[in-house]
Write a structure and sequence with these properties.
Blueprint (H helix, E strand, L loop, with lengths): L11 H6 L6 H4 L10 H8 L1 H14 L5 H9 L3 H18 L4 H7 L2
Helix pairs in contact: 3-4, 3-6, 4-6
């Protein structure tokens, strides 16, 4: 029997494996996106980390306008902060060559 993965029947093997466990309406429903609780992260749990990281990055680069970053935090623009923070972390890791263990040691 030909098993199609990819452009044929999506997740064929998984669906076949759980067909006797999950209801068919769950197995055959449309694909759903995966939401990330960005707002909660930046304005409740990790807001200080994000703000500190962006301020630190801005202190030695000219990629972002500091006033604009402040506006993002004031306006609770979590998704834009998420994009900027990911760029900063990528830049520090791959361009500035800062390793993840350095984050753990310094907390920055």
């Amino acid at each position: 029997k030909n098993v199609k993965i990819g452009s044929g029947v999506l997740k064929y093997l998984f669906k076949k494996a759980v067909k006797n466990i999950l209801p068919s309406e769950i197995i055959n429903r449309k694909k759903q996106g995966f939401g990330v609780p960005i707002y909660e992260w930046f304005f409740k749990e990790f807001g200080g980390f994000a703000r500190d990281k962006l301020n630190s990055f801005n202190s030695h680069t000219d990629f972002f306008d500091k006033k604009y970053i402040d506006v993002l935090f004031r306006n609770n623009s979590a998704q834009k902060i998420w994009f900027v923070l990911n760029f900063v972390l990528w830049h520090e890791r791959w361009i500035e060559n800062i390793k993840s263990h350095e984050y753990m040691e310094t907390g920055k």
